[in-house]
Design goal:
Distance between the termini: 79 Å
Strand content: 5-15%
Number of strands: 24
Number of helices: 20
Helix content: 25-40%
Length: about 750
């Protein structure tokens, strides 16, 4: 019988320590990569008419290609939109199971997100435990392709039969071994911050020697908000209800219920300790440990349960292993201390945990001197303290024009509207006596800037920019094609969906018509999966969009966003003169240009981009143009956004952040921890030039973000745009600028002229 036609029993247990099969590679449990004997280096005719070719990434993200023969499709229970089939790789017929997302469910972004989350969990487990003997209790991923027309993931077939087939047929020793191995599996999952959530007698297999968990298709990160999943008795009451945060002890509830099921031969109700638990002396240790408690906090930790079961902790000997990034995290702390010493003050927005406790609480407008005062000196007219019931502010305040950096006094004679052709039409409101109509007209009107000189491009400001609180201007900085335009569109799309409301912020358009145009041309196009065109070079810097942001009923503050072409930012031209008055910066870093990682080489080849050790030209040009405060540091708060982080999402430190949703209430410890990790990651994989924004800015946080969540093909994103954590840099800047409720802003910068 030939290898191509050799039958395989998918339920046949396989012992990795047993003798090798003469018709297969010597150790089929080893990763399937480019060194595999059946790997195809280049496309070639299949070895048999029944075979096709399958290309995918292994768990180390190396591209591999094999001849493949597929079996019949079937629908796995509990996984809508997913089909599974058996496949044989290579002429050696290495068996795998392929789970793929069919075309129709891909229209649902949640379906793709679930598969992506599953792959991230499976890869994390394989990278951590794939070479360990005890890792056999976990699912073993072979490879994946999330960019294919039908995204898929490949697993090694499980051995044995489901535990539900063994009920009432297992000896006491086997029951104890199963319980101990399940507790060990939960311990392994918990050490990589995973909660499996699908441990049931139907999903756990037993081959007479070891258990094997099923694929982590329902896994959550520990600490993430619980999503309702599972059924009684196997899922804990909190998990079924979707209350609180996911906890590894959720899985221990499942272990306890399985132990009771194997011993009693029947499932419990799943509402607490079984009524007849005292009748089973072999479960006494589980009962007294609190394993059946309804609340996760009352259950033992996995390590404690292993001790009670007299099972050795497989990670005990490696508990002291150093994280290679710890060296760079320590360097981050050193750099923070250096900048604090240079600036001569504690900076609670960027320092280590606990520093904020000693800083005085700043008012909503005290953290930084306005552009007007920094440039011209003296006192700028300030709004009165916010009243409990906000009232419209009278248009009598001086504001700095963010384009030409000159003060603008409100003058009704300079009011205009702009028609569809861009014509400025004078607006006369002197005869309007109805307050509601007057307020609505001003909301949509513009105010001409009186400082336009001959030869300059005329410009105007939305009237709300002049009649509300202190403005905040934010510029996105980076070379061409780093994704600034996509990142800004993704940010404002999340804002439009209410992404800032959990932080106590309310947002309205600065100008309704301009905002609608931006949403239609940018945000909606991105959400529909279309790649946005490159930002064209300008002869005059105009902001892309603006918002009125308010917190707790206070006077709204205008927030405007500048998105200039990379070519404009990389040149010391007149277009960039507005940078002298920008209040905050988002530096956008492209991993394809920055990171020395071989896994990115194929993408670099496809996109035509090359790695640069000298950093981003736009970073250097902008930072060199901005005046410094004492100590030589830039006063404006900044955020360094590692965009396109989906390209490196399976790196453990990236997955730790990109795989999680942003926390609801603001917690200063979160951006601090993310900044330490992102700094360490960049310090390890990029040249020091890419960290120049952090080095030069007194307050700079670092974030992993993904504006699109995938690479475009042609002018579209095949599986839609899936922004990740794009609000993190914006929230950090809001906190540093005193706009985020409950956040302590950066220290005052009186006397600093930028």
């Amino acid at each position: 019988m030939t290898d191509q036609n050799r039958p395989h029993d998918q339920n046949r247990p396989h012992d990795p320590d047993g003798p090798p099969d003469a018709h297969r590679p010597p150790d089929p449990q080893q990763p399937i990569g480019p060194d595999h004997p059946d790997h195809i280096g280049e496309p070639s005719p299949p070895p048999h008419p029944y075979y096709q070719e399958l290309e995918f990434l292994n768990h180390q993200e190396a591209q591999v290609r094999f001849a493949v023969r597929y079996g019949e499709d079937r629908r796995p229970p509990g996984r809508p939109g997913i089909l599974v089939r058996r496949a044989l790789l290579g002429t050696g017929a290495v068996p795998v199971h392929q789970y793929r997302l069919t075309s129709s469910p891909q229209r649902d972004p949640d379906a793709y997100g679930l598969l992506e989350r599953e792959v991230a969990a499976a890869v994390a487990l394989e990278r951590r435990y794939g070479g360990a003997k005890f890792g056999a209790v976990l699912p073993r991923v072979v490879g994946f392709d999330l960019t294919a027309a039908e995204p898929f993931v490949l697993y090694r077939p499980p051995g044995g039969r489901p535990l539900s087939d063994w009920a009432g047929r297992l000896a006491a020793e086997d029951q104890e071994r199963i319980t101990g191995q399940l507790a060990m599996a939960v311990r392994l999952l918990g050490d990589v911050d995973l909660v499996h959530r699908a441990i049931t007698p139907d999903t756990v297999r037993w081959d007479g020697a070891r258990v094997r968990l099923c694929e982590p298709y329902a896994a959550l990160r520990a600490g993430e908000t619980r999503e309702p999943f599972g059924a009684a008795p196997w899922a804990s009451p909190e998990q079924r209800a979707g209350h609180g945060a996911a906890d590894p002890r959720d899985d221990l509830w499942s272990v306890a219920e399985i132990a009771y099921f194997l011993l009693s031969g029947r499932p419990d109700r799943g509402e607490g300790p079984p009524a007849d638990l005292a009748d089973y002396r072999r479960l006494a240790a589980l009962e007294h440990s609190g394993l059946f408690a309804r609340e996760a906090e009352r259950r033992p930790h996995p390590t404690e349960l292993l001790r009670l079961l007299h099972v050795p902790d497989p990670l005990a000997t490696g508990a002291g292993a150093a994280d290679p990034l710890d060296r760079w995290r320590a360097e981050y702390d050193t750099q923070i201390a250096r900048k604090r010493a240079l600036s001569g003050e504690a900076r609670p927005g960027a320092g280590p945990a606990g520093d904020a406790q000693d800083a005085p609480v700043q008012g909503p407008r005290s953290p930084r001197t306005s552009v007007f005062r920094r440039v011209f000196g003296g006192d700028e007219a300030r709004p009165a303290a916010p009243a409990p019931e906000p009232v419209p502010a009278p248009p009598a305040r001086s504001r700095m024009c963010p384009h030409c950096l000159l003060p603008v006094e409100y003058d009704e004679r300079l009011l205009v509207t702009i028609d569809a052709k861009g014509n400025r039409i004078p607006l006369d409101l002197s005869g309007e006596r109805r307050p509601g109509h007057l307020s609505d007209a001003l909301r949509k009107a513009y105010h001409l800037c009186p400082h336009t000189r001959d030869g300059d491009e005329g410009h105007e400001l939305p009237v709300p920019y002049l009649t509300n609180g202190e403005p905040l201007s934010i510029a996105l900085v980076g070379s061409s094609s780093v994704g600034k335009t996509h990142l800004l569109a993704a940010m404002l799309g999340e804002v439009e969906l209410g992404g800032l409301e959990p932080y106590g912020l309310k947002c309205r358009p600065l100008n309704p018509e301009a905002h609608r145009t931006y949403l239609r041309e940018r945000v909606q196009s991105l959400q529909q999966g279309r790649q946005l065109g490159r930002t064209g070079q300008q002869t005059f810097a105009r902001f892309a969009d603006g918002l009125l942001v308010s917190a707790g009923g206070a006077t709204p503050r205008p927030v405007v966003f500048f998105d200039l072409a990379g070519e404009d930012l990389a040149q010391d031209s007149e277009v960039g003169r507005f940078l002298m008055g920008v209040d905050a910066f988002i530096f956008v870093l492209d991993p394809l240009r920055a990171l020395r990682m071989p896994s990115l080489d194929p993408v670099r080849e496809q996109s035509g981009l090359r790695r640069r050790d000298l950093g981003d030209e736009a970073f250097a040009t902008v930072l060199n143009r901005i005046p410094r405060q004492r100590g030589g540091l830039v006063a404006a708060p900044a955020a360094l956004a590692v965009n396109k982080s989906d390209l490196v999402r399976f790196e453990p430190v990236v997955d730790r952040w990109l795989g999680r949703a942003l926390p609801g209430p603001h917690d200063p410890a979160v951006p601090r921890a993310e900044s330490r990790d992102a700094y360490a990651f960049l310090a390890q994989h990029a040249s020091p030039a890419w960290l120049k924004p952090f080095d030069d800015c007194a307050d700079c946080t670092l974030h992993f973000v993904a504006a699109t969540g995938g690479q475009a093909r042609g002018d579209r994103f095949p599986h839609g745009a899936r922004p990740r954590r794009v609000l993190a840099p914006l929230l950090s800047l809001f906190a540093l600028c005193g706009l985020l409720p409950g956040a302590r802003p950066a220290g005052p910068t009186e006397g600093i002229v930028r």
